[in-house]
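Person: I keep going back and forth on a fold encoding question. Show me how you would write down a chain together with its backbone fold. Please set it down just below, with no commentary around it:
Helper:
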Amino acid sequence: MRDSFGHYRKVLLLLLIFAVVSCAGIRKSPKTGEELLRERVDAYWNLRVEGELDKTYQFEYPLYRKKVSYNSYLRRFSNPTFRFEDIKVTHIDLKDKEANIKLKVKVVIRGINRRSLGVGAIRNNRRSFEADAVIKDKWIRWRDVWYHIPDDF
């Protein structure tokens, strides 16, 4: 009886090893360049919507960060009266290491009424103006990482 129990243990151990080795060989297919880019674009704009500029600064192209200090970046993009909401990538034009992105966004401007704008708001209340807009965004791949290129660079 003892010999048959030892035999079962060896067979179970071999099956377990075979299962682990087989599963280790299963891999997801690598992400395409466009998928990697889309993930970076989505992450960047979600952080912008949340106002986490300390994190979006790290998404900016390294040569831009050399030129524009963190404090200057915060002054430029920290605007409590202006914000983006509901951002969606609508088009990606990817060419090797450069990409042009189109985004559909809802822009909210607080502390302003439509008469001061001289136009009728799509959605408004007494203290804010909301409108849908399309943003053209540029990205560049440097050292296999996608970076955002601000308009002023």
The mean pLDDT is 82. The chain is about 40% helix and 35% strand. Strands lie at 82-95, 98-110, 123-125, 128-142, 145-149. The helical segments are 2-24, 33-50, 53-56, 62-67, 70-77, 114-117.
